[in-house]
Amino acid sequence: MNFAFVQITDQHLTASPAELVHGVSTTITLRAVLRHIAQTVGDQIDFIVSTGDLVQTASAESYRAAGQLLGLHNSAAHAPGPVRISAEGLHDCPLYVLPGNHDDRDTFFSSLFPAGQPQSRLNATFVHKGIQFICLDWGPDAKAVAEPAMLAFLDGALTAPQPSIVLMHHHAAPIGTDWLDNFIADEVDRFWDVVAGRSVLGIFCGHVHTSYDQIVRGVPVYGLRSTAFAFSLHGEPDIWRLPPHYRVITVRDGMLTTHVIEVPLTEPR
After folding, report:
1. Which of 83, 145, 222, 231 holds its CA 20 to 30 A away from the CA of 207?
2. Residue 173: which domain range?
């Protein structure tokens, strides 16, 4: 069946809306993104997925503030969801949430998914309208680690009869910026050995705060600019204060298409 969904990533929310991250109010930027989604594609999408780093500092207070901002409910959900959000014009919108390197796993699970059990890694699948979504967890550090258990999980999931879409926080293919590409797992070739030649419609990542698309071993790979701030693509680590992005993904007749939407920043109403 045909459907569309939205990817957002790297919200870096704080315990207090007044707290800035690299000079940016991540509360204001995420509110702008959610409002834009609601006003432009909210009635056309089936769900939203967040690919990690929901908070900047993984505390119960930060997750509580994030839940309040999102209008989050449905505490009976198990990771990765969906939970339901009602914020900025979104009404009971399903949201799947993956952890990133800023998300302490114990606090992430206990705060967002209290009905389930905390896990050391969130490797999980869900199926939506005939498409399998595979959620992979490369660990809590800035540099990804391709654990054997994650690779075995991925290999098993890809034996399913449905086509798959892979969701993950860390990127797994170089984007051409050394300081960011150093975060790629040393064992990343093992990941591509598992994925290559399988029925994967696309891989969607966060972590590097940059929107890009490329083909790796025949598989489309998509990155996305943070809802908060962008990273420099030059030689040295730096922050760029660029407008946030979100990505709209459409699956139609077994084919995947995407487009990135840039959100102009204005003060919330």
Report:
1. 83
2. 3-262
